[in-house]
Amino acid sequence: MTQPITLPRALAAGAPATGGMRFYLTTHKRHWLRWTDVPLFLKAEHFDRAVKWDVAQGPYAVDSGGFMELKEKGTWTRPPRQYVDSLRRIWEHVGPYDWAAQQDWMCEEAIIHGGWFGGQYFVGTHLSVAEHQRRTVANFLELRSLAPDLRIAPVLQGRSIPEYERCVELFENAGVDLRREPVVGLGSVCRLQSTREGAAIVTAMAAHGFRLHGFGFKILGLERVGHLLASADSAAWSSHARRRPPLPGHTHKNCANCIDYALNWRRRVLAAIPTHRQTMLTDGSAA
């Protein structure tokens, strides 16, 4: 049995830096919302079985859970109306979130073609990139029609700069002005983030003037293109903890689900970024 965690004031995020990039700590532990005011990133599905709701003490954003949905099922099984209903319950019980990601269709090879990748099995959608993009735009339009009052963010999808440009065109042809959106998600880039190709995609999309959110970014990606993002999220702390012994005084096998480790990791990430970019990687508002 793990020891109870005493939560000191040191867990607070502190004063936000004006104009800084909002760096969300990704977790599946929704009760962390009442334990810290550090920006958190949680999947909508983690609230589905909530009996006791935790009121957020700080900023948070909601992920639609698209990667696992398409990885395991090859399609979206949660209808848009059900997703909207879930987002409304979260808003009402937890408090206003910064934004929620739409139900997009990732364009990574594993998601589209399926099979074994990195020791994981993907069902595969067996659809084209163009069809994934079409479905992504169609979903955003449906969600906005169902809930124009909710903060739902569009997500760009593709695998190359021309494909992302095509996705921008699809949104624009559908009447969505991405430059006016508070946040535009940049999908299918997390595995490319530290590469030249990934950096080129981020740079090309940032050149449009979009306020980009980078899904699943790590230190190398933040060092390379963090200054081009309005916000980013990361769950890398958990896999990092799984490969290491627990913190001193912690009795669990490892700290893969430990808020102390997560917050310490987050501080180390921010400290590791070159000094001239640290002001961009803070708890600053994405607004």
List keywords for this structure.
single chain, 287 residues, TIM Barrel, eight-stranded parallel sheet, 9 helices, disordered N terminus
What's the SSE blueprint?
Layout: E1 21-26, E2 40-43, E3 60-63, H1 66-73, H2 80-94, E4 100-101, H3 109-113, E5 115-117, E6 120-122, H4 129-146, E7 152-153, E8 155-156, H5 161-173, E9 184-186, H6 196-206, E10 212-214, H7 219-225, E11 231-234, H8 236-242, H9 259-272, E12 281-282
Parallel strand pairs: 1-2, 1-11, 1-12, 2-3, 4-7, 8-9, 9-10, 10-11
Antiparallel strand pairs: 5-6
* Shape, per Cα inertia axes: globular
- What is the first-to-last residue Cα distance? 41 Å
pLDDT average, as an integer? 86
Report the top-level CATH class: Alpha Beta
The percent of residues in helical segments reads 25-40%
Number of helices: 9
Give the tally of structural domains: 1
Number of strands: 12
The percentage of residues in β strands lies in 5-15%
CATH fold category name: TIM Barrel
What's the architecture in CATH terms?
Alpha-Beta Barrel
Q: Which blocks of ≥5 consecutive residues have pLDDT under 50?
A: 1-19, 275-282
Report on the structure:
This protein is α/β, with parallel strands linked by helices. It has a single domain, classed as Alpha-Beta Barrel (TIM Barrel). Helix content is 34%, strand content 13%. The protein contains 9 helices and 12 strands. The strands form 3 sheets. Strands 1, 2, 3, 8, 9, 10, 11 and 12 form an 8-stranded parallel beta sheet that branches. The chain has a two-stranded parallel ribbon with strand order 4-7. A two-stranded antiparallel ribbon has the order 5-6. Helix 4 (129-146) runs parallel beside helix 5. The radius of gyration is 18 Å and the shape is globular. This is DeoxyPurine in DNA protein A domain-containing protein. Residues 22-284 form the DeoxyPurine in DNA protein A domain. Pfam families: DpdA. InterPro entries: DpdA.
